[in-house]
Each structure stands twice: as C-alpha cells, then as structure tokens.
Design brief:
globular; Cho/carn_acyl_trans; 24 helices; about 800 residues; eight-stranded mixed sheet; six-stranded mixed sheet; transferase; alpha+beta; lipid metabolism; fatty acid metabolism; transmembrane helix; about 45% helix
Length: about 800
C-alpha cells in the first residue's frame, strides 16, 4: 500500500545529511523503545481496569470468593491453613470483629489465588498462541494436533473475549536469523538482476554477514526483549513520521462506498447516518465490545492499532511528525465550500440522533456565507511537504488557535463535497475513475490530511473515506468502514423520503463557524502548497474496474488460494505491460504478534517468472502451464505464511539498517537494499465481517474496496477486493507524467491475464463451476484480447430498510 512508497524513500530521513537526527546512542533508542512499550502497557492496564477487564472480569473474582466462603460455611479449608495465617497477620480489633477478620482473610486469599490463576491462564495462552504450525498446513485441511490446539485456545480464551482481551497473551515478534534473511533476499532479487549485478550483490551480502550482521543482530535481540515489538515503533517513526514529503497520495489511501447502490440521494441525510454509525463504532471501541479479529476464525490478532482510529491527528514537525491522540472528542470538523465548521455530536443526553445530525449538516449546506480570505485553500497546507507545513502551522496556531484546535481535536474530519460521484450509466468507466481520484486526492484543499481519516460525502449521497496511513494499516480502518456501511444502511436506515429516521430538533444549536484570523504573510505559502497539491493530484492516473467474469467461487473450485491466483495474474499482466519482471510488493500483516503491523511478500519469484514465460510461449501446453502455475502458487503461499509468522525479509533488513545508522556504521549492502524501488505495489482489501452483509439477498450491498497511490514514479499501485463470490474489483494507480505506465492499459492486461489463467483450469479438467464467457463459447486462450465490459447495473436512487 502507501507504505511501499514510504519504505522506498527511507534513505532520505536516514541519509548522511540528516545524521544529526540520529545522534543519540543506540542504547538510548532501545531504552526509549522499551519505555514507550511499558507506558502503553500500563495505559492499557489502567484502561482495562476502568472498564472492569483487568486482570480478568470482576465476576470471576466474586465467584471465587463466594466459593471460598461456601467452603468455610461447610467447615472446609480450601486454603490449607493459609487463611488462618493471614488472620494472624491482621490487626486484632477485638473479639466482636472476628468475623470481619475472617472475611478479610478470605478476600485476600481469594485475590492471591485469583491473580495466580489469571497469570497462569495468560502464560498458557501465550504459549498456545506462539504455535504457528496450523498456518503451515495444506489449504483446507486440519490435522488432529491442530484441532487439539484450537480447542485449548478456545478454552483458555474464555467465553466472550473482548477487543483487547488477548493483548497480554500475544507473543512478541521474533528476530529472524541474519543468514536466513540474506538467503531469502538473494533468492527474491535473482529474477530481476543480471548476472553481474547479482554477483556484486551476493559479494556485498557475504561481507555483511561476516563483518556487521552479528553486532547488529545483538542489538535487535536486545530491543526485542525490551520493547513490545522489535520493529514496529521504528517502522512508524522512520517510514512515516520522519518522511518529509506530502501526505496526499504518498501516505494516504481511500475506501469506497457500495458500488451499485446509494441508499439515499440526500447529502445531509447520508452524512448524518454515517457520522452516527462511526460514533457508535467508537462507543463500542471504548467499551471494548468489538469482538477481536480472528485469523481464519481461529487465531486472535493484535488489536493495538484500533486505539488511534478516532481523535487522532498527525501533527507536523520540522524534522519529525508526532501522533496526537485524545481520549475523547465530542465534535467533528466539517468542511464545505471553503468554510470550516465545528459540529457538536453529543448533547447532555449522549450521542445525537441521525436526524439531529442531518439537521446540522443541512444547516451547513444552506449557509450562504462565503469563505474568508485565506480560509478556502487553508487545508492545502496539510498536503504540503511536512517541514513547510510545520513552520507555517506555528503562525496558524498563534493567530487562530481556537479554530486549529477545533479541527485537530475533532473525532474525525468531514468533507461535504459540492460535486456528485460514483458509478453512472452515461460513462461508467470514467465515472468510477473520477470517483477514485476524488477520494485519493480531491482538489488538494478540501481534505485535512493530518486527521486519522476524513469522511467524504458527495452531493448525490455517495460516501468515501480518505485515511492517513501512519497510525494503522488498512484492515483496521476497513473493519470500521464495514461496520459503518452496514450500520447506516441496514440498522439505521432511511425514511421513505430519503431523510434519516426520526424528527428534527428545533432547539438544537447551530454548528459553529470557525474563524481563521490569519496574517497575510502566509498567503504565498498557501498558494505554493495549493499549486503543489494540484500538480500532484493532476498527475495521478486512477482506474477502477469491476471484473465480473468470475470471482472467489470459481477460484475455490480450482483448489487454489484466491490471493495467489490474483497475484500470479498480476505478474503476467505486468510482464505484458512492461516486457520485464520487477520487484513486487504485497502487504501482509504480522498482527499474529503483539503490536505487529505489516511485512512484505516479494511476489516476483523464480517460480512465478517460469509460469509467466510459459504463458507467453505458444509451444507450451495448457497442462504444462497449469503445472507451473501450481508450483508458483505453492511458492507464493509459503512466502505469505512465512511473512505472517515473522520470518519475512524486509522488516528485518529495515531494522538492521536503522540500527546501523544509529551506530554510524556504513553498510553498502543495507544501503543497496533500502534504495530499491517497487515498480509494482499490491494489496488485497479484506472483507472481515461478512455476517454484517446479506450477500445472497443483497449482492450489491458490499463495499467496492479502495486504493492507494503508486510506490514509484514509474510504477503501479494495485489493490483488489473480492465482492461476494463472483466479482473482483481492481483499483489501479500510476503517474500520468510517466511514459512507462498507463493505468487503463494495465487494467486491460489484468483482465486478459485473469481470463487466460482461468482458461487453464477450464481446459485442464472438468469443474463444477465455470466462469462467465459473455458470449464466448470456446474460451479465452493465451495471447487473445477481449473487449472490456462493464456491468450494466447502476446505482439506485434510494433504498429503504
């Protein structure tokens, strides 16, 4: 995702020119990492205590205490004499308080026993969660040991685990061996390097292993013992917060609304329901009532990233940004036609109803007042290079502190767009591309890119989300977005006239218009930031197309991983587009471990290259290509599982590089590794809460995924989402200024590649399910071109629930 671009530009904040930024000894960095980890741990313990979750539910302690009292009533001593010794240690308050001393002794014994049991349970659960053998088993099978392991995990997890219930039981991410990481790295670059270049790289790697790796490994192991995660805090700091480029496109991604359906055409109504649904999600989040995410329904994932979804702002700094997170916020900041508003979301009775929120949004839409000087394009500063924005922000804070605090202290940012968006019947392809572009970049001045996310509501009621990447990765914001779409559409619903349900409140106070009393001296900076933002926005080429010939259902019939199927088709499509192989970035999560974030899966393997070359060789038969395809799929799955188990390549090399820079140690090998570019960056948008959507009865009510900018000026960014069982939606981005890339051209190659790969299974063996041929009866062969088709369905004007 957007992290691929940030990772490829890592040399900039860690260059020799900025060595002063890393002047602190490596010991101090490790100490600070450990200190930050313990602060977060203590804060979570305190938060859990306030919510009645630490170290376990109070009801469990009460049950244990009651059992001990019952045993004492039956003249049994479950403490084996310990309670009598505790009584002797208590002060003697006289004979009349003998029973009170007994109760206190029982309570103390119950507390000690309760704590010991909880600690034992957490240790046992951590040992169980450290097992990853189940992930390495063949797809679709489960051995008897895995079934036993799963049963034990469920027993020790409790009946109703909450969002953060597993945090203290999750294992820490292991530090791979340097030898294994280097071996995997050399394997990954072999397909894209000439012989001479590969020999030079191998020599650098050999020298690194002999001279520098042992010392660097020692420091990483020390950090892994002190901190919650040996790499995640450095990843957040050096890849994101120290990056000095624009956040727009480079460190943002977007999520779309339903593709074919718009529940109401009323902009204010859709905004009211969406904001209400988002704040309902925040309420569940604060109470930890969101169920923890389980991988494959079995293994809990780390939930640490959920903490910063709301009330979070990335504050710019001259050398380094920082994330400011508030415990609570009872308003949202709203932007409309160059004006900023503070909209109160709560009253003395709690969260405002959707109809009350709609009423306030409508007042903003109806407000005829013009934008003040410098206000209309002020948000373009958040799209400027971070050092520039940091310097100007001091002036903005001095002259308009109240307004700036209202924006940065908001739960999130809302942009009421004055233009419609979404799929249209007149030009479906162009309308989807424009929709994606509006979400990714907008006009350059109508998003506050510093906020954790911006809710975008278009004039025709279409929704979208623009998300800043530093605080969390896509699955976390995607989980929130799925809940929002399902809640605002199915649970809250709309009245027959398209308005939110309920009645307006005439006593509700109007939204507060923010005043920006800014000095004229910052006008040139705003103008410069706006020109830069518009230039970047105009340079992005977005293309979105729903592929409806087949989907996950057909791929399942092929007995192949759906993600591997798409990744190999992307390799084939990119080779046809560029005529060469390249380093390919696929984002995989490492949330099996405490505070894990992502790892890179290098999809351009030797096995994938052999398959692609065979597909382009007309002398190869379908059976030969299919055999090579399955070998490449197995290799991709092995890399994906290794990355998820903490045995990937790139995060380890990144941590080694940061450590070398902290030690002022020059490493030609690590410098070469970190200077690599990713011409093809890919990511799958997962659908995590299928129970919220009735795909069978309402197949159109599924999010159409999202996308991100390219990680390279001459590269592509490709994301995809499986919509139901019979559709895959692709989001492609590239730079218009590049003569080597074209998002629409790659889209055509992707569609052709998918059909060609699918035809191998059609010709190779009979299947119960077959993909739709749309008029073709003989199937699609390698090298054939098919005309791109777009599903004729269009959005409905309004749907009631």
């Amino acid at each position: 995702m957007a992290e691929a671009l940030q990772a490829s530009s890592l040399l900039s904040p860690l260059s020799s020119d900025g060595a002063a930024e890393l002047s602190s000894p490596v010991w101090q960095e490790i100490y600070l990492s450990g200190l930050r980890s313990w602060k977060r741990h203590l804060w979570r313990v305190w938060n859990d205590f306030l919510t009645g979750m630490v170290p376990a539910s109070p009801l469990s302690w009460l049950f244990l205490f009651s059992a001990i009292q019952l045993a004492c009533f039956l003249q049994l001593d479950p403490s084996l004499g310990l309670m009598e010794k505790i009584k002797e240690l208590l002060p003697d308050w006289g004979g009349q308080h003998y029973q009170l001393r007994g109760l206190l002794a029982a309570a103390l014994f119950a507390s000690c026993l309760w704590g010991a049991l909880v600690f034992t349970l957490h240790v046992a659960l951590r040992l169980l969660l450290s097992h990853h053998g189940w992930l390495l088993e063949p797809h679709g099978t489960m051995s008897s040991p895995t079934k036993t392991w799963l049963a034990l995990v469920r027993i020790f997890s409790g009946r109703h685990p909450r969002l953060f219930s597993f945090q203290r039981a999750l294992p820490r991410q292991p530090v791979p061996t340097a030898q294994e990481t280097i071996r995997k790295y050399l394997e990954s670059v072999r397909p894209v390097l000439e012989d001479d270049a590969f020999d030079r790289t191998s020599a650098l790697a050999s020298d690194f292993l002999k001279l520098q790796a042992p010392r660097l490994q020692l420091y990483l192991h020390l950090k892994s013992w002190c901190a919650s995660n040996y790499v995640s805090d450095w990843w957040e700091e050096f890849v994101y917060l120290r990056s000095r480029g624009s956040l727009m496109v480079n460190s943002t991604y977007y999520l779309m609304d339903f593709l074919y359906v718009t529940p109401t055409p009323l902009q204010a109504a859709r905004a009211g329901n969406a904001v209400h649904a988002l704040l309902l999600y925040r309420h569940l989040l604060n109470r930890q009532e969101i169920p923890p995410t389980l991988l494959m329904g079995m293994r809990p994932l780390c939930s640490a990233q959920f903490e910063k979804i709301f009330n979070t702002t990335r504050v710019p700094g001259v050398e380094k940004d920082y994330l400011r997170h508030l415990q609570d916020s009872q308003h949202v900041a709203v932007f409309h036609r160059g004006r900023f508003f503070r909209l109160q979301t709560h009253s003395s009775n709690g969260l405002l109803s959707p109809r009350a929120l709609e009423q306030q949004f409508q007042e903003i839409l109806d407000d005829p007042s013009p934008a003040c000087p410098l206000e209309e394009h002020l948000a373009a500063l958040t799209a400027a290079p971070r050092s520039m924005w940091a310097q100007v922000r001091e002036s903005v804070k001095t002259h308009a502190a109240t307004a700036l605090e209202a924006v940065e202290g908001a739960a999130f940012f809302v942009s009421l767009d004055s233009e419609p968006a979404g799929l249209t019947r007149e030009d479906p392809a162009a309308s989807l591309d424009a929709y994606a572009h509006a979400l990714l970049a907008g006009r350059g001045h109508d998003r506050w890119f510093d906020k954790s996310f911006t809710l975008i509501v278009f004039s025709n009621g279409k929704l979208g989300l623009s998300v800043e990447h530093s605080w969390a990765d896509c699955p976390v914001s995607g989980h929130m977005w799925e809940f929002t779409l399902a809640t605002e559409c199915f649970r809250l619903g709309y009245a027959a006239d398209g308005h939110c349900k309920g009645q307006p409140d005439p006593a509700l106070p109007r939204p507060w218009r923010l005043q920006w009393d800014l000095p004229e001296q910052i006008h040139p900076t705003i103008s410069l930031a706006l020109r830069g933002a518009r230039a970047l926005s105009d340079d992005v080429d977005c293309h979105v197309f729903p592929f409806s010939r087949f989907g996950k259902s057909f791929i399942k019939c092929c007995d192949v991983s759906s993600d591997s199927f798409i990744q190999l088709a992307l390799q084939l499509a990119h080779f046809r587009d560029r005529g060469q192989f390249c380093l390919t970035y696929e984002s995989a999560m490492t949330r099996l471990f405490l505070e894990g974030r992502t790892e890179t899966v290098r999809c351009c393997t030797r096995e994938a290259c052999h398959f692609v070359r065979a597909m382009e060789d007309k002398e190869k038969t379908d059976q030969q290509c299919l055999a090579l395809f399955r070998v490449a799929v197995d290799r991709h799955q092995a890399l994906l599982k290794a990355a998820m188990c903490g045995q990937g390549i790139d995060r380890h090399l990144f941590a080694l590089y940061v450590t070398s820079r902290l030690l002022h140690m020059q490493s030609p090998f690590l410098t070469q590794v970190q200077s690599q570019q990713w011409p093809l960056s890919t990511s799958q948008i997962p659908v995590q809460q299928m129970h919220l959507f009735d795909v069978r009865n309402y197949p159109d009510y599924v999010s159409s995924g999202g996308g991100f900018g390219p990680a390279n000026d001459h590269g592509y960014g490709v994301s995809y989402i499986f919509m139901g069982e019979n559709m895959v939606t692709f989001h492609i981005s590239s730079k218009k200024s590049s003569t080597k890339t074209d998002s629409h051209r790659l889209g055509q190659h992707i569609e052709d590649a998918l059909l060609d790969v699918a035809s191998l299974f059609q010709a190779g063996q009979p299947l119960k399910c077959r993909f739709r041929r749309l008029g073709e009866s003989s199937g699609y062969r390698r090298g054939s071109l098919s005309s791109k088709t777009v599903d004729p369905r269009v959005p409905t004007a309004s749907t009631n629930f």
